[in-house]
Amino acid sequence: MKKNLKNIIKESYQTKEFQIDPTGYFYDLETIKDNISTLKHNMPEQISLYYAMKANNNPKILQYVVNQDYIKGFEIASSGELEIASQYIPTSHLIFTGPGKTEYELEQAIKSKIRLINVESIVEAIRIQKIADKLKIDQVDVLIRINLNYSLADGTELMSGCSTKMGIDENECIESIKYIQKLEHISVKGIHVFAASGVLNYQSLLKSNCYIFDLVRKIEQEGISVSIIDFGGGLGIDYTDQNCIFDIEKYGNELGKLICDYHFQEKEIIIELGTYLVGNAGYYTARIIDIKKVKGKKHIIIAGGVNHMGLPLEMRRKHPVIIIPMNEKKIYEEEPYVEKELVDISGPLCMVTDKLSWDQYIEKANIGDIVVFRQAGAYCYGEGMHMFLSHMLPKEIIIDEGERLE
Question: How far apart are CA 241 and CA 255, in angstroms?
Fold first, then answer.
């Protein structure tokens, strides 16, 4: 963690606003810029990078991301995201994904003339056809999402290779594409094949890419043109604090070779990244309200829990933790503290599952100190149960070039 960022957090918690509501997210824009730059300098030229805005839709982050010249557009998954995204980027730079798009959402997307809709089923394709006919739209460009017969064993969330709600079964995909191609107002531009998220082994992702390229060949042998291949996301970040880094340089180099081997240089390859772009740029922070020992185990209770940060509960995944000492005056002389112990870190909610970390080793912590959860820039604020118990929302603080933006 950058020293200046730690100082900014500490100084922020000494202000009146953090005395009233001692929770917040801090986002470092420079980290986002570095992540995008790493991709730009290592990925093949056929790659088009879209930001998966579900990861974090903070307005200042959206504005910052869209200003990066390597970003082709946003990937959206609802009409609400469409409305927000259109404030920052032309709708022709949007891709609409998701397994349960309503007729209203599809109509809004078609009216807005977004670039691509990822079709999840024949039912959805027919809905698009009927809407386009009603609106007298000549053509709607789509990608066909396919649930592969291939499973990525080391992904944190599998999207294919098993029975999920995502996409059309690979065993039926060619027949389905041929059916959809016959619909007058639909133009099939390619396929969408998001296999898994949270992959850290670049070789594992390359094997998946090779499988996808083989599938594209099979599809094209049936007389179906595939000009766009959308890999979805997949690139993971390390939540273990063990320096497990996805090797972008090696992945980009090997993917480039793979593209040449398959003679796919003329195809556009889309990646939709959220976690990789913003995950390591975010820090969730909360003051320690109490420390107690119950039935032989220590518990750190902080001012915010799964109401502010739902991912640890949902994914059963811990985030790296840092304690910032605030050296506050003790409540009483025998006040409990933590020193070289395994503890649970829980929020203030009236539910025992309100835990942000468990069996977490803490070197030293006192009441009033700040707990910082790293890797909290993606799917954290947005996945919180903000209405539960009506606690105040965490503040969102933007850091740029080492300075806090007001």
Answer: 27
- pLDDT number for residue 406: 63
Q: Which two tokens stand for residue 44?
A: 């093949």
Residue 257 phi/psi, 5-degree rounding, is -65, -40
Q: What is the DSSP letter of 153?
A: T
Q: What is the DSSP string of 174-189?
A: HHHHHHHHTSTTEEEE
d(CA 77, CA 100): 9
CA distance 353 to 198: 24
Summarize pLDDT for 195-227 with one digit per residue, the tens. Answer: 777 899 999 999 999 999 999 999 999 999 999
Residue owning tokens 């995201």: 81
3-state helix, strand, coil in the chain (%, to 5): 35, 30, 40
- Please list the ranges in the chain whose pLDDT falls under 50: none
C-beta neighbour count of 82 within 10 angstroms: 20
Tell me the DSSP string of 78-93. Answer: SHHHHHHHTTTS-GGG
Rounded to whole angstroms, how far apart are CA atoms 179 and 265? Answer: 28
Length of the chain (residues): 406
Q: Which of 94, 91, 83 is nearest to 116 (CA)?
A: 94
CB neighbour list of residue 363: distance below 8 Å, 6 or more residues apart? 323, 339, 340
The answer, as to whether pTM is greater than 0.90, is yes
337: which strand partners?
366
What amino acid is encoded at 257 in this protein?
Answer: K
Structure confidence at residue 343 (pLDDT) = 98
Fill in the DSSP letter of residue 391: P
Task: Return the structure tokens found at 403.
Answer: 């300075």
Report CA torsion sign: 83, 87, 88, 92: positive
Element (H, E) at 252: helix 248-261
Return the DSSP state at 392: P
Q: Is 357 exposed, middle or buried (0-12, 13-18, 19+ CB in 10 A)?
A: buried
Specify the DSSP element, H or E, that contains 355: strand 355-366
Cα 10–28–36 angle (5° rounding)?
160
Residue corresponding to tokens 């974090």: 56
According to DSSP, the residues that pair with 230 across neighbouring strands are 192, 270
CB 232 within 8 A of CB 193: yes
* CA–CA dist 39, 70 (Å, integer): 9
What's phi and psi for 218, nearest 5 deg?
Answer: -60, -40
Q: Please give the backbone phi and psi of residue 365, each rounded to the nearest 5 degrees, phi first.
A: -155, 145
Distance from C-alpha of 389 to C-alpha of 23, rounded to nearest angstrom: 15
